[in-house]
Design brief:
- By secondary structure, this protein is an all-beta fold.
């Protein structure tokens, strides 16, 4: 018997829904998770002490093309207009990822303005590939009262650290062009661009723009990394609502419904989508995901299972696994400082390469935050139950 350490891979919080059942096939770029959003808000200083505020925030629902501009405009005071605007146009393709974003923050006198355009995509290169990454950034800050907004930036990274990051900009409006290229092995990567502006007390203007284009060309054979196994079982819990606790039994199809934007307690039992564990051959990570049997691909990422150091005897393992849920469908990662999380006492088998091929998790403890049919966030306290994997039903890139 020896100690076995399961590698840990950090994955962004994903915001996916049933509107995004269009994953990419036979591609050198396979998306894993995404967080693309634009948001603006303006708070008005009120002499009575109250602080009225306006907010407009929109996030991408899935892996499809995202084109959005949010705007708040009006009069902060007589003769003092305000404007807060953020936009983004981005696309995840089979061999390219592109994004263009902007913010224009002009909150007006005695107002606080915020404008954010955030782009972050985790993706897998399914084969070794040459890549190019290029684009431009600009930043114009014409206010003396800025709280110190960070400059816009572009970054490419993986679990080993930063591969490329744009240099820090000055806020004089100069257009900064960047470009890099090289070779990347098959594996998981994160590409991101951010423009985040804060202007307190109004006065003047803060402008930011980013543009990026990432292209990949395979130079090796595909490496199929994800082995997909359906999960059966049930979680035993208590729903906390209206000051009372109601016992519930959560089946895997309930989590599927919630991840695809339906009610957690819907009477609908999906027959095309199943809750599955995806065991990664490249980095030995393990994920809870929704697998669509019709298109033979993952359509929603529920969460990453991170194992503590476990014990191995031959091809058997025993370990404690923690699963933090993503924002996906009606599942909420955090509500009121309480994280959606399952702690699993797990055992199973490994293949010759060290990838997990079977999982038996019992008991399961934790809590799951979800949005109910009234649009409110509730919590299920998980106090027991089990999940178990079945025979492999698919392979992902």
């Amino acid at each position: 018997m020896k100690t076995f350490s399961f590698p840990v891979l950090a994955v962004s919080a994903s915001i996916l829904s049933a509107a995004a059942l269009t994953p990419i096939h036979a591609a050198v770029i396979a998306p894993v998770s995404q967080n693309r959003s634009v948001g603006v808000s303006v708070s008005f200083v009120n002499l009575t002490g109250a602080t009225p505020a306006l907010t407009n925030y929109t996030a991408a629902a899935g892996f499809g093309a995202y084109n959005r501009t949010n705007t708040l405009s009006g009069m902060a005071r007589p003769m003092h207009p305000y404007l807060a605007q953020a936009g983004q146009s981005s696309q995840i393709g089979a061999a390219a990822i592109t994004a263009t974003g902007m913010v224009d923050d002009e909150p007006g006198i005695l107002s606080d303005g915020f404008a954010n355009s955030d782009f972050k995509v985790s993706f897998r290169l399914t084969a070794s590939a040459t890549f190019t990454l290029g684009g431009s950034l600009t930043w114009t800050e014409t206010t003396m009262y800025s709280a110190g907004s960070p400059p816009p930036f572009v970054r490419l990274s993986n679990a080993g650290g930063v591969i490329f990051e744009s240099a820090a900009l000055t806020s004089d409006g100069t257009v900064y062009s960047y470009a890099t290229n090289g070779t990347l092995p098959a594996g998981e990567y994160i590409i991101e661009a951010h423009a985040n502006s804060t202007v307190p007390l109004g006065y003047d203007q803060s402008l930011m723009n980013y543009d990026l284009a990432f292209n990949a060309v395979a130079i090796g054979p595909p490496q199929y990394a994800g082995q997909v196994y359906p999960l059966t079982g049930a979680l035993v819990g208590l729903v906390q609502e209206a000051g009372t606790n109601r016992p519930v039994l959560i089946a895997p199809h309930d989590l599927v419904n919630a991840a695809l934007g339906q009610s957690l307690f819907s009477t609908n039992i999906p027959n095309k989508q199943v809750l599955a564990m995806v065991s990664d051959n490249l980095n030995h990570s393990l994920r809870l995901a929704v697998w669509d049997k019709t298109i033979s691909n993952v359509v929603a990422e529920v969460g990453l299972i991170v194992f503590q150091s476990g014990l191995i005897t031959g091809t058997n393992y025993n370990a404690i696994g923690d699963t933090s849920f993503n924002n996906v469908g009606r599942l909420v990662d955090t509500a009121g400082a309480i994280k959606s999380r399952l702690t699993l006492s797990a055992s199973g088998k490994l293949d010759a390469g060290g990838a997990i091929t079977t999982l038996l998790a019992a008991p399961a403890l934790g809590q799951i935050n979800f949005i109910n049919n009234l649009g409110n966030t509730n919590m299920v306290l998980i106090k027991g139950g089990s999940l178990a994997s079945g025979r492999k039903i698919g392979t992902t890139p």
